[in-house]
Specification:
about 0% strand
């Protein structure tokens, strides 16, 4: 335990690192560069990515502290938003790949678990579908897109949903989009079991 504490202190992190893999990720310069990015904004009143990671990790322990996939959830939390700094551009500039894609590319240097990689890359997809529905007022299209996402996640859906739950329960976020998607997941799984 003292090693974990001194390692956290030397990096000045807001959270503990629990495994050698987490420690290896946390010394990567491109990961460290992303921790301090961010200022208070809609959906992220906490501002800095490091604070958001801390909050998601607390939710993982709150909801899934005894889950077999807790270590995977932690890896997703550590990486999922850390590359926003690489994709933050003024609205008038050409948009590159999303932060989630950059995060997955980084994660592939450390992780070969497809479920973890998929959750990192797709962590905002359900929210984006819901947001699109609220803007276009086209729930039928949103449900088709949500069903496609559910099918694409396949066997990795449960890990995705657990992370989505923890991410959506941080300060400044409404859980409406999570509840909407969870309802569709439950319906989809119910249909799958009966067919």
């Amino acid at each position: 335990m003292p090693t974990r504490f001194s390692y956290r202190q030397s990096l000045q992190l807001l959270f503990e690192l629990e495994t050698p893999l987490e420690q290896a990720i946390a010394i990567a310069p491109e990961w460290l560069a992303g921790l301090e990015w961010g200022s208070p904004r809609p959906g992220h009143p906490e501002g800095k990515v490091s604070t958001h990671i801390r909050d998601v990790l607390q939710n993982i322990d709150r909801f899934y502290c005894r889950a077999a996939d807790r270590a995977k959830l932690r890896l997703i939390a550590l990486i999922h938003d850390t590359f926003k700094y690489q994709t933050a551009r003024p609205p008038s500039t050409v948009q590159g790949p999303p932060h989630s894609f950059c995060a997955r590319v980084f994660a592939e240097n450390f992780i070969d678990d497809i479920a973890v990689l998929q959750a990192i890359e797709r962590h905002d997809d359900a929210y984006k579908i819901w947001r699109g529905m609220t803007e276009t007022r086209n729930p039928m299209l949103a449900e088709v897109e949500a069903q496609a996402l559910i099918a694409q996640l396949g066997d990795h859906l449960e890990l995705f949903m657990r992370f989505y739950h923890c991410d959506s329960r941080t300060a400044g976020k409404s859980a409406d989009h999570y509840r909407w998607f969870k309802r569709l997941v439950d319906q989809y799984q119910g249909c799958s079991r009966t067919s």
